[in-house]
TrEMBL record:
Membrane topology category: Single-pass membrane protein
Major subcellular site: membrane
Localization, UniProt: Membrane
Protein name: Neutral zinc metallopeptidase
Lineage: Bacteria, Bacillati, Actinomycetota, Actinomycetes, Streptosporangiales
Record key words, sorted: Membrane, Signal, Transmembrane, Transmembrane helix
Keyword Signal: yes
Protein's organism: Streptosporangium canum
Length: 287
């Protein structure tokens, strides 16, 4: 169980669940592959299948091969704990989560017969710029598709609260943007918002971000026993997001709180990318 009562999460979620994306168009004691359960290792050693190029255009978003790959692998993810105020323990924890994400999504991409490459991970103590531009306002971290790098802020606000599952969800969300990049979804998004009017850009941004919420939550479901996060804790997190998730994003480019909560629930309940096709969802569910 968590070493911190869940009711103390509010201050962290503001900083740590403040996700953002910047597109190219628009460690010590880290976990190793040996931490995976036998079923995952066997899957990774399966016969090599011929990879295909990621789909292009609208099909990349609406009918991506990842949607037909079933549940994410049942992964043993030993992360350790974060000590309040300790940047070192935070970095170790997040690096381990990243290793688990690499292994899990590598397996899933193999099932989809799509090429896979790991993203880069960079911890920063200030709001640095990247090839994608300036640090997004309100974000605790972001993914830049131009250099395929996740920038994770290590700040006093983040280090005040050591609740691991919240930080893991944050990392998984940013990693999901990398998944979108590799799967061709990001390219479709970039083409769609290029020179589009503001309302169209916001609508596409919400579908992109809410899908990342869903994919991140699917990962959390598969590693819930190890973090750990039980149903009561998860429900409390979702309720908080429902009520507050939109407050960091005044332009509504990430979706309303109820929309974020809805897609988080879908991902966590299914543990599969199949639940995360925001691109064919009704406008109401991605508002």
């Amino acid at each position: 169980m968590s070493t911190l009562p869940f009711r103390q999460l509010s201050s962290l979620i503001v900083a740590s669940l403040a996700f953002s994306l910047v597109t190219g168009v628009g460690a010590a004691n880290a976990a190793t592959p040996s931490t995976a359960k036998a079923s995952v290792a066997e899957t990774a050693k399966a016969s090599v299948t011929k990879e295909q190029a990621p789909p292009r255009g609208r099909t990349a978003a609406t009918a991506n091969p990842l949607y037909r790959t079933g549940t994410l692998p049942d992964l043993r993810c030993t992360t350790g704990q974060i000590r309040a105020g300790s940047a070192a323990s935070y970095k170790i924890f997040m690096t381990r989560v990243n290793r688990c994400l690499n292994l899990m999504w590598k397996t899933q991409f193999r099932k989809a017969k799509l090429p896979f490459a790991q993203p880069k991970l960079r911890f920063v103590t200030s709001k640095v710029s990247s090839p994608c531009g300036r640090w997004p306002s309100g974000a605790g971290g972001y993914y830049c598709s131009s250099n395929r790098t996740m920038y994770i802020g290590v700040t006093r606000a983040v280090l005040k609260n050591p609740y691991g599952p919240n930080h893991a969800q944050f990392m998984a969300h940013e990693y999901a943007h990398h998944v979108q990049q590799l799967a061709g979804i990001m390219n479709y998004y970039g083409q769609s918002v290029w020179r589009a009017r503001s309302s169209t850009k916001l609508a596409f941004s919400r579908r992109l971000e809410l899908q990342a919420d869903c994919l991140g939550s699917a990962f959390l479901r598969q590693v819930a026993d190890d973090l750990p996060v039980d149903q009561e804790q998860w429900d409390a997190m979702v309720r908080w997001v429902d009520e507050n998730g939109h407050k960091s994003w005044p332009t509504n480019d990430h979706g309303k709180g109820r929309s974020q909560a809805y897609w988080m629930e879908r991902g966590f309940n299914a543990g599969s990318p199949s639940a995360c096709n925001t691109w064919t969802a009704s406008p109401r569910s991605v508002a």
